[in-house]
């Protein structure tokens, strides 16, 4: 019985249509590519453009190299067309403060959330003082 189940699965897998996966149509050519890095390891710069319209660029630099406070900061952007035809441009900075994306498709933080964050930040010392008393 187990043999028949395994045989049925093998036949089903062998007869599956995978032509859409194997065709060269799903391969996107790289139209342009550039990559540079500083010999001392303190930075890099790269960019590429694909045949399907995707463009990406990034520049990285090590801030405070050769110290305990050395951090990498990367600035870059990505441009592509969304499946619905909308052009998308994403700009970002990634550093010790985290990943900070901007773009028309990135949701904006609601005003009430920003006000709440400001309120919490301005009242944090008071809350910490109360916590120390207890």
UniProtKB/TrEMBL annotation:
PANTHER family: CUTICLE PROTEIN (PTHR10380), CUTICULAR PROTEIN 65EA-RELATED (PTHR10380:SF238). Residues 1-16 form the signal peptide. GO terms for cellular component: chitin-based extracellular matrix. It comes from the Eukaryota. It holds the Pfam family Chitin_bind_4. GO terms for molecular function: structural constituent of chitin-based larval cuticle. This is Uncharacterized protein. Keywords: Cuticle, Signal. The keyword Acetylation does not apply. It comes from Pieris brassicae (White butterfly). The keyword Lyase does not apply.
């Amino acid at each position: 019985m187990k043999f028949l189940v395994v045989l049925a699965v093998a036949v089903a897998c062998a007869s599956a249509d995978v032509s859409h996966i194997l065709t060269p149509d799903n391969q996107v050519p790289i139209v342009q590519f550039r990559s540079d890095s500083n010999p001392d390891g303190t930075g890099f710069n790269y960019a590429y453009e694909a045949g399907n319209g995707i463009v990406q660029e990034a520049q990285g630099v090590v801030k405070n190299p050769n110290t305990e406070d050395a951090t990498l900061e990367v600035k870059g952007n990505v441009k592509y067309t969304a499946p619905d035809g909308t052009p998308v441009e994403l700009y970002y900075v990634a550093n010790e403060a985290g990943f900070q994306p901007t773009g028309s498709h990135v949701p904006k933080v609601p005003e009430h959330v920003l006000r709440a964050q400001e309120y919490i930040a301005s009242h944090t010392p008071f809350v910490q003082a109360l916590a120390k008393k207890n």
